[in-house]
């Protein structure tokens, strides 16, 4: 193999693959008339990124991902030439040479990609996913809560929950499709961050994939059946509050400073206002009142401040409607004026001390 590639484009492709693959993974480089392809895989994951290049001699080799990515990241040059020299892949520059050992012929072999079932706008998908994936659990011993449920029919639905809150986003598809999988949230977020333009959604045989011009990420999936918005009762709403999300978030930050270790604060709703209150034995107490449009009776649910802030950040610059249910049922947050992406957030109330 002998190929010349733009250093920054090659570095971007190799770095993207390295971030997604395990630390000791190998990368397979394939050069042909179409350019250079960077690919890698393990039993659960497969990635592929394209890089423009001038191919002098076709070929395919595998090299260790981590040192290859680190070397490319530090190069200060426009072009880099990759040439196989015996049992090494040499990176040749005008004034330098670096050589990586070649791995076995099986390393980084591509995994067949599942068929495409639909397509979605990449920027819209990534934006919605950042919000929804933020509610997935970071607790690996509970893997079923570390994923995002991806469902497609006439529209795309993204759902995630860590048992204390749930977020659901609905967004339009470029074409109808049939899909229902649970995908690891961290991986899905990183893949969506890399995607550009329209993004293909792939599914089949226990796998899920995203594809776009120049890239593909595929992964094994988890069991999706249990994670559903339908599992949250939402028919008992007796009070609704409509107000500016940014103003409420700012008040939550200020009043939350005075909450106890669990950082629980109370929203006392009544008349045409919301009063936020919290107290902490060693630092004192705080309260703040905001004007709001209130429908229904008086109520005073309590929430963990950081969960409420996470929910409100999803509605930055908008007026938000809080639909409050009695007892310990979830509160429902939606924008007053729904956009193209329809987002619903369900923070669970807490027991106030």
TrEMBL record:
Coiled coil: none
Residues in DNA polymerase III beta sliding clamp C-terminal domain copies: 238-349
Gene Ontology CC: cytoplasm; DNA polymerase III complex
Keyword Signal: no
Keywords: Cytoplasm, DNA replication, DNA-binding, DNA-directed DNA polymerase, Nucleotidyltransferase, Transferase
GO biological process: DNA strand elongation involved in DNA replication
Record flagged with keyword Cytoplasm: yes
Molecular function as annotated in GO: 3'-5' exonuclease activity; DNA binding; DNA-directed DNA polymerase activity
Location(s), subcellular: Cytoplasm
InterPro entries given in the database record: DNA_clamp_sf, DNA_polIII_beta, DNA_polIII_beta_C, DNA_polIII_beta_cen, DNA_polIII_beta_N
EC number: 2.7.7.7
CDD domains: beta_clamp
Domain DNA polymerase III beta sliding clamp N-terminal: 20-106
Protein name as it appears in the record: DNA polymerase III subunit beta
Source species of the chain: Amycolatopsis mongoliensis
High-level lineage: Bacteria, Bacillati, Actinomycetota, Actinomycetes, Pseudonocardiales
Gene: dnaN
């Amino acid at each position: 193999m002998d190929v010349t590639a733009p250093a920054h484009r090659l570095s971007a492709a190799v770095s993207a693959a390295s971030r997604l693959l395990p630390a000791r993974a190998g990368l397979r480089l394939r050069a042909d008339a179409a350019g250079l392809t960077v690919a890698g895989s393990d039993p659960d994951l497969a990635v592929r990124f394209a890089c423009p290049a001038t191919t002098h001699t076709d070929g395919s080799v595998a090299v260790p991902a981590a040192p290859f990515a680190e070397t490319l990241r530090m190069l200060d040059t426009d072009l880099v030439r990759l040439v196989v020299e015996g049992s090494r892949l040499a990176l040749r520059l005008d004034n330098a040479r670096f050589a990586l050992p070649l791995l076995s012929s099986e390393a980084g072999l591509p995994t067949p990609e599942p068929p495409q079932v639909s397509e979605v706008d990449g920027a819209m998908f990534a934006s919605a996913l950042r919000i929804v994936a933020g509610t997935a659990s970071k607790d690996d011993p509970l893997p079923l809560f570390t994923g995002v449920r991806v469902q497609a029919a006439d529209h795309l639905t993204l759902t995630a929950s860590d048992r204390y809150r749930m977020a659901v986003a609905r967004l339009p598809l470029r074409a109808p499709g049939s899909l229902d999988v649970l995908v690891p949230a961290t991986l899905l977020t990183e893949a969506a961050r890399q995607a550009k333009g329209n993004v293909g959604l792939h599914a089949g045989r226990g796998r899920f994939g995203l594809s776009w011009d120049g890239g593909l990420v595929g992964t094994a999936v988890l069991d999706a059946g249990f994670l559903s918005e339908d599992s949250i009762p939402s028919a008992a709403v007796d009070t609704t509050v409509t107000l500016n999300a940014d103003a409420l978030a700012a008040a939550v930050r200020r009043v939350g400073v005075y909450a106890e270790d669990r950082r629980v604060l109370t929203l006392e709703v009544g008349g045409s206002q919301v009063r936020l209150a919290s107290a902490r034995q060693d630092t004192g107490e705080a309260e703040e009142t905001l004007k709001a449009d209130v429908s229904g009776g008086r109520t005073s649910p309590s929430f963990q401040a950081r969960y409420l802030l996470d929910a409100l950040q999803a509605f930055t610059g908008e007026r938000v409607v809080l639909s409050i249910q009695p007892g310990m049922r979830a509160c429902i947050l939606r924008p007053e004026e729904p956009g193209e992406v329809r987002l619903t957030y369900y923070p669970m109330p807490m027991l106030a001390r």
